[in-house]
Structures are given as C-alpha cells and as structure tokens.
Amino acid sequence: MIRTTFHVVALVAGTALAIATLASPPSLAQAPQGTVAFTNARIIDGTGRAPIERGTLVISNGHVTAVGPASTAIPAGAQRIDASGKTLVPGFINDHAHLNVDRGATLPVRDDLIRRLKTYADYGVTSTVSLGSTQADELEGFTLMQEQDRVGLDRARLYTAGLNAIGKTPEEARTSVDRLADLHAQAIKFHINHTPNDMNRPTWSAIIDESHKKGLKVAVHIYYMEDAKAAMDEGVDILAHSVRDQDVTPAFIAEMKEKHVSYIPTLTRDLSVFVYETTPAFLKEPFFQRGMSLYKEQVDIVTSPAFQEKVRKDPTTEMIRKGLAQANRNLKLLSDAGIPIAMGTDSGVAGAGNVGRWQGYFEQVEMEMMNKAGMSPMKVLVASTGDAAKVMGLKNVGTLQPGNWADLVVLRANPLDNIRNTRTIDSVWIAGAKLADVAPATATR
Ligand SMILES: [Zn+2]
C-alpha cells in the first residue's frame, strides 16, 4: 500500500499556502535567510533532560525554531551544518559578574564594557549578570542592556543590577531601590559585610521589601551562615556567594527549600584571593591566552613579586583558602539537596586588590571547580545555563528550546564525559549568528 503524506505549512507572508511532500528528513517551505540547521549533533538543551544523540537544531531569525531527533523537519534552503561528533550546549550564563570599567582604561566607557562582553563571548559565556556597577559604568550598562535584543548580537548579553542598593535608613534604602527599578535593573543586590558602614537589619530588610513591591529579585552578598539565614528570614531570593564559615545545617537547607532560595557559589572568587601567592600555571595555558588582549594589564600585576608577597602576608589569604574548602563542602550539600544552583564567579569586579578575576576564563574554571566539588557534569551544565536563567529571571535564554534566542556553543568533545570539554569550543553563536572572532579551537588537556 502506498501512503502519501501531505504537510501543509503557512508561510510567513500569511496568505500563501505551500504543500510539500514529506521526505526524510522532511523539507518545509523556503526558509528565511539566515536559517541554519545543525544535523547529527549531540544536543544538551540545558533543562537537565538527557541529551539528544544525532539530533537536529534549527535556528532562524535569531531564535531556536526546532530541536529534536534526526527526523526533525528542516526548512528548504536552510544552511545545513553537519555537526557529527560535536555537542551543542546553550551559551553559558554567569549569574554573578561585574561589568566594571577599568579605572585606568583609556578607552571610552562603552568601548571598554563592550570589549569585556566580547571576551566573555569568546569563552562561550553568552550572558552575564552584573551584580554591582560603579558610578563610572552604571548608566552605560543599562544602555547596553536595552540595545541587545537583536539578531546578530556580537557580544555577550548583559543583565545589570546597577549600583548595589544602599541606605542609611530604611527610607533611603527604599529610594535607592526605586531608582534602580526606574532604570530597569534586572535584580537588586545588597551586602551584609560587617564593616562599619554596614546597614542595620531594618534597613536592608526594607531593600528586600521594596524590591519585591517592584517585582524584582534580591541577591545578597554574605559570608557567614548566620547572615544568610537572617537575609532568608527577611525574604531574600538569592545567596550571591557561598556560605564559608560552617557546614550548612539541615534546618538551613530546609528553609532554603521552603522559601525557594537559590545559591551562587562563586568559587573562583575565593580562588582569586590566594592563588596569586605564586604565579599559577594556568596563566600559560593557550586557552587562557585567548583573552590576553583584555587580561594583559592584570597579568602584569598578579605576576609581580611585590603583589605576590602582599598576598602571602595578608591574613585574608589563609581565611579564604579555608573558606573555599568549606564552600566546596556546602555546594555538594546544597546541590545534593536539590537547591537551585546558578554558576557565578564575581569576575570583573573593580576595586583595589580585586585583580585576577578573568572575565570569560574564570567561568570555565568555575564549571570545573563545581564539578570537583561534587556536582555531576550535567548538573554543572544546567546550573550554568537553564537554571542560571531561571534563578535570575532572564527571559528567552538558557535553554535550547523553540522560541528562545539561539545562543549556543558548539563543542568538539562531550562535556558529560569530562567537564573540561566545555573548553573545546568550535564556535559560539549569539542570537543566531556565529561569532567571527573566536580564536581557533584549543585542545583540552
Ligand atoms: Zn560580586
């Protein structure tokens, strides 16, 4: 018996109908220009679902339009890319970064921020969340954020919280949140620091309350579990660093679960505090050197004998080395308990002493450290893509699902076999366009 199937497709033009016979793989009506179909790819979609083997992913007009097995329809005229042996993952998302202008930079602020966003992109980081601007770069950050919803963006997306919320009184704190809300901040961040200028509890509590009134999530800088608990009791949404003074207790984990509080470990932030006692070997890696045009100035600082001696003598160095060991333990406890984890690094932060937090490279190191702390490669990937988007409320990014922006990384080796394979970048795509200036593929070690 001969069975003929007809597939009816409405063209974008609206009125015309085309009838095409289904073949294998089927062809649809003529694709809009710029339509690309990856075939024979392993596709990890960022939701945590098992990968699709030998799958097809179609992107058009900057967005994912189809994803599925080999039988997935490919529009006629689409550019086909045979991705045999390659793995497609969503572009990585860093939920705790700082897009701060270099104080000594000679470039205009906008150009300096853009070169940073391009460096992130070169490392496969296609979205970055700035949890703290400086006066010098805050407004340009908001401008860049407004300009990025377009096809063919050639830099990482930026989502900014603007300046950290602050106030001497609850009223001042609310005013500070209102200003940020008017600027369309992605989220609100504040600090519990134990410095003389620290806000008292009613003041920072007003930040949380006012942010929620404006529909904004709140992230808090903490170090101690007691502070994290106090912030949680007052309704905070996100812990922006690891708890580093003790094991998180079952009661603490239960409260995080009940209140849907999520967690950004920022392990490389702590690494950067003590790793420059001497010159770390990674500075010589070809993969690190990919970012050298941006990193150069700070490489000179962290390799200088005077700086390294200062690090060795600083009492903070030892405290943070121990703090990182504790952070690793807590990440495992929280991940095993099912708490939403989002990748974040604190890369790029401006300010005296905060050097060597490499934008782009450290997101890659962070993923490796999260894996070493006890998260499976799949959990690390979800924390660095789909869950990072969810935790920060980012729309239309994070997963390779129809309707989302086509932000993705093509890898030459499977990151589920070894998390370091996230470094085997073949190409980076943002809003449906391949970045032209990604350095040649670098072998994993
Ligand atoms: Zn930070």
Describe this structure in words.
By secondary structure, the chain is α/β, with parallel strands linked by helices. It has a domain at 91-398: TIM Barrel, CATH 3.20.20.140. The protein has helices spanning 109-122, 138-146, 170-182, 201-213, 225-233, 250-258, 267-274, 286-289, 292-302, 305-313, 315-336, 361-372, 377-383, 386-392, and strands at residues 6-10, 17-21, 27-30, 36-43, 52-60, 63-68, 74-76, 79-82, 87-90, 92-97, 125-130, 157-160, 188-191, 218-221, 238-239, 262-263, 408-411, 425-430, 433-434. Strands 4, 5, 6, 8, 9, 17, 18 and 19 form an eight-stranded mixed beta sheet that branches. Strands 13-14-15-16 form a four-stranded parallel beta sheet. Strand 1 and strand 2 form a beta hairpin. Helix 7 (267-274) runs antiparallel to helix 11 (315-336) and helix 12 packs across helix 13 (377-383). The longest helix is centred in the last third of the chain and has 22 residues, at 315-336. It starts with 5 loop residues before the first strand and ends in an 11-residue tail after the last strand. Residues 1-24 and 439-445 have low confidence and may be disordered. The site of zinc ion (ZN) has 6 residues, from loops.
With helices defined by DSSP (H or I, 4 residues minimum), what is the helix count? Answer: 14
Q: Return the structural class.
A: alpha/beta
- Cofactors and ligands: zinc ion
Q: Rg, please?
A: 23 Å
Proportion of residues in helical segments: 25-40%
* CATH class assignment of the domain at 91-398: Alpha Beta
Largest sheet: 8 strands, mixed
Mean pLDDT: 91
What would you say the CATH architecture of the domain at 91-398 is? Alpha-Beta Barrel
